[in-house]
Structure formats: structure tokens, C-alpha cells
């Protein structure tokens, strides 16, 4: 099973659209995961229409129309893998222990908010993934997103993709 992980798209405030490379990844993914800060429902509608399966949550910049349609925390079992998605996990300091405590029955937690790519595994085996942002890099050198593979209940290869500079 192929996953596409994105977050913090902030459309149309930070960009007019998702990059074409991300749309191609949407079309080849079995599941698209968006970890919040959509800003507008238009992207939710487009992703929902073009994704085989979409799992998303609202972020701190998402108003009532998105909060009415999306949960704060999403959970799914994908090919035996227990996935959770949330926008914010708090400060970097103590993140692993805090997330292990808050998500004890989870194999992989996808989050956003910081726009900083993150890929760690806690002492207890919880994988924490933040794909960064494909549209709002802030202080990061690149716009980013992640792809991942699930097989037999386990997370396989996770790839952080750097997008070319926008013109």
C-alpha cells in the first residue's frame, strides 16, 4: 500500500495550488494523509475527489467549515498498521515520550504544524512523521512531502521528497 503524506498546505494563502508533482503522487497513492492547515475547503474537495482514500484532520489555521468536516485526530488501520493523524504534537522537547503516552495503540503518528520534516522512532517503537509543507517552507530550505509504503502491517520505506524551487 502506497501512502502520500502532506501537511500545512495553507491554500490559497501561501500558494495558489499544490505542485504538479504532488498531484501525481496523489494519483499513484492508495491513501493520502493530510495533517492539517488546509485553510480552505477547496483543496479538501479536490483531494477527496482525486484520492483513492483520504485521511485528514483540521489544523490551528482551519476555520469552522473545515472543522465541521474533519476531526482533530484521525485513526485508521491500513493493511494491519495502526495509523493516527494530528496537526499539533507540542514542542520538540519531550515529543517522543508525550506522543507515546497520548497514542499508545498506534504504530505511526503523522503530524504537521511546524513545517519542519521529522522522522523518528520512539523508544517504544512509535514512528513519528512530519512531511513538512509542499507549499510553505517557512525557514526550511525546501518545500517537502513524504511517501511511504505499508506491507504486512509494517511501515516500509519512507521517503522525504524535496520539491524544486517555485518560479
UniProtKB/TrEMBL annotation:
Keywords: Metal-binding
SUPFAM superfamilies with a match to the protein in the record: Metallo-dependent phosphatases
Keyword Metal-binding carried by entry: yes
Stretches assigned to the Calcineurin-like phosphoesterase domain: 1-151
Cofactor(s) the record lists: a divalent metal cation
Family assignment from sequence similarity: Belongs to the metallophosphoesterase superfamily. YfcE family.
EC identifiers of the protein: 3.1.4.-
Stated name of the protein: Phosphoesterase
Domain of life: Bacteria
An example Gene Ontology molecular-function term: metal ion binding
Amino acid at each position: 500500500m502506497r501512502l502520500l503524506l502532506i501537511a500545512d498546505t495553507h491554500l490559497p494563502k501561501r500558494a495558489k495550488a499544490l505542485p504538479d508533482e504532488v498531484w501525481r503522487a496523489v494519483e499513484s497513492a492508495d491513501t493520502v494523509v493530510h495533517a492539517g492547515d488546509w485553510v480552505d475547503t477547496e483543496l479538501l474537495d479536490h483531494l477527496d475527489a482525486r484520492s483513492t482514500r483520504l485521511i485528514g484532520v483540521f489544523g490551528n489555521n482551519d476555520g469552522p467549515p473545515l472543522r465541521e468536516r474533519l476531526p482533530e485526530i484521525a485513526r485508521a488501520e491500513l493493511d494491519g498498521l495502526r495509523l493516527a493523524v494530528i496537526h499539533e504534537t507540542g514542542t520538540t522537547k519531550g515529543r517522543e515520550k508525550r506522543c507515546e503516552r497520548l497514542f499508545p495503540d498506534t504504530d505511526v503518528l503523522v503530524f504537521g504544524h511546524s513545517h519542519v520534516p521529522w522522522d523518528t522512532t520512539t523508544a517504544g517503537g512509535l514512528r513519528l512523521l512530519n512531511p513538512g509543507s509542499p507549499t510553505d517552507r517557512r525557514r526550511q530550505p525546501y518545500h517537502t512531502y513524504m511517501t511511504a509504503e505499508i506491507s504486512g502491517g509494517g511501515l516500509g520505506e519512507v521517503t522525504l521528497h524535496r520539491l524544486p524551487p517555485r518560479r
